[in-house]
Amino acid sequence: MNNDTICALATANGIGALGIIRVSGNEALTVVQKCFPSKNLEKQKSHTIHYGYFMDEDEAIDEVMLSIFLAPRTFTTENSVEITFHGSPHIGKRILETLMKNGARMAKAGEFTLRAFINGRIDLSQAEAIADVIASENEASRKVAINQLKGGITNEISFLRTDLLNFVSLIELELDFAEEDVEFADRSALNQLLNKIELKLNSLIESFQYGNAIKNGTAVAIIGKPNAGKSTLLNALLKEERAIVSSIAGTTRDTIEEVLHIKGHAFRLIDTAGLRETIDEIEAIGVKKAKEKVENADVLVYLADAATKDFTDDIEMIKSLLRNDLKLIICATKIDEVIPTHYENAEQIFRDEISHEFDFIKISAVENQNIQDLKNELSSYVEQLKTSENNVIITNQRHFEALQKSLDAVDKVKEAINFQISTELLAYELRNALEYLGEISGEVTNDEVLGNIFSKFCIGK
Ligand code: GDP
């Protein structure tokens, strides 16, 4: 790993009161010194701040503050300087150009964090957590990311890995004494440890469903016949959100998703653009489109007009959309329009026909009746995904995959013990399991994986 001097804008690229440029590398002080003649930086203590002019030769670019961090007590463990300037993008650009003229180069995406990882200051899951902290958009995702940054998943796994490592050493010792037919590693104790590991892995794997809901939001499809009240409900749900809500373009298709926040959790309302199309278009798109939407959803909110007494079409539609892992909420809509006796049997009609579990809520989007109940139901759906015994929640696909591979490998070791297969094979399976467990914290890794992770970071991170 070379530690040439890198620099990048660490703050958002736009006008602000202040901006910060980060410089890191063995020669960081020497490079910055050439642009900051007012003080001798070599003589300054670590973690101190210095006022002066940032100069491009004889020209003063800006009045700045320098923060100096000396190796090894820095984010990257290398000498680092942070230059705080007046937040004009143009000034930021001039400062970066001047730094490069004097021996620094632009940092690549995530290069500061990569250096922190390579130099052993943080493990891989913590490096990933930094990206998650920055990306966190609600309380739930912030909490999980901060917990991860504190070493969450690695702490959970590392002591199990250490125990397993002890067994691997014992088994390998057996291999050394192969002729003597001795057993240093107590097979039943090993089995017990494997069971313990399996339990932990399973509970971490289970937490991914909740973790995914935290990180990516819960996908909700609002479906119903034309005129059932879908767009009216959507507007009622989003009413208080309007100021903060962001419309984001879907990743898989050209759809618009609106995000609704309930009790710190995000709900992505799938393809809300469709809801704003004209009724004719919706009818033309019909069931096929509804199926597509529900395919990508965790929750189906199905709206049936309470004024209709005949729910045959609705029931048919719901049946065609259901799958085992789908949460179903059926809402009888427009209850302000009809008298209660008109729709009081509605729930029973659905219950008679639909065996899938569902919640039934009677709402009026126009009069805002029971909309809160619907929100509560959505919120409790996410809450119940939380597995009670887990403090650490997996939100990262890479961790999820490594955990599953570890679990498979542990299963194979258990099988190997059961079938009393050769010590060589047992040692092989054990090493496999160790390797997958090590992938999470980055103890075992390769350049491709690292490239993949850090290229998704932004520059300056
Ligand atoms: P969509 O086709 O399912 O999106 O249905 P809309 O939301 O466009 O609603 C169809 C019609 O029903 C509109 O005239 C709405 O004003 C009306 N509507 C929707 N929700 C309610 C409600 O809760 N109460 C009443 N009285 N009318 C509603």
TrEMBL record:
Keywords attached to this entry? Coiled coil, Cytoplasm, GTP-binding, Hydrolase, Magnesium, Metal-binding, Nucleotide-binding, Potassium, tRNA processing
NCBIfam families noted in UniProt: mnmE_trmE_thdF (TIGR00450), PRK05291.1-3 (NF003661), small_GTP (TIGR00231)
Q: Where does GTP bind?
A: 227-232, 246-252, 271-274
Task: Please give the superkingdom of this protein's source.
Answer: Bacteria
UniProt remark on cofactor binding: Binds 1 potassium ion per subunit.
Tell me how this protein assembles: Homodimer. Heterotetramer of two MnmE and two MnmG subunits.
- Domain annotation TrmE-type G: ranges: 217-383
Per the entry, which co-factors are needed?
A: K(+)
- Enzyme class name: hydrolase
Coiled coil ranges (UniProt) are 364-391
What family does this chain come from, according to its entry? Answer: Belongs to the TRAFAC class TrmE-Era-EngA-EngB-Septin-like GTPase superfamily. TrmE GTPase family.
According to the UniProt entry, what is the EC number of this protein? 3.6.-.-
Leader sequence residues: none
Q: What is the protein name stated in its UniProt record? A: tRNA modification GTPase MnmE
Q: Where in the cell is it found?
A: Cytoplasm
Source organism of this protein record:
Chryseobacterium formosus
Q: Where does K(+) bind?
A: N227, S246, I248, T251
- Give binding positions for Mg(2+): S231, T252
Q: Which SUPFAM superfamilies match?
A: P-loop containing nucleoside triphosphate hydrolases (SSF52540), TrmE connector domain (SSF116878)
Gene3D superfamilies reported for this sequence: P-loop containing nucleotide triphosphate hydrolases, Probable tRNA modification gtpase trme, domain 1, tRNA modification GTPase MnmE domain 2
Listed InterPro entries: G_TrmE, GTP-bd, GTP-bd_TrmE_N, GTPase_MnmE, MnmE_dom2, MnmE_helical, P-loop_NTPase, Small_GTP-bd
Q: Tell me which residues bind (6S)-5-formyl-5,6,7,8-tetrahydrofolate.
A: R22, E82, R121, K461
Q: What does this protein do?
A: Exhibits a very high intrinsic GTPase hydrolysis rate. Involved in the addition of a carboxymethylaminomethyl (cmnm) group at the wobble position (U34) of certain tRNAs, forming tRNA-cmnm(5)s(2)U34.
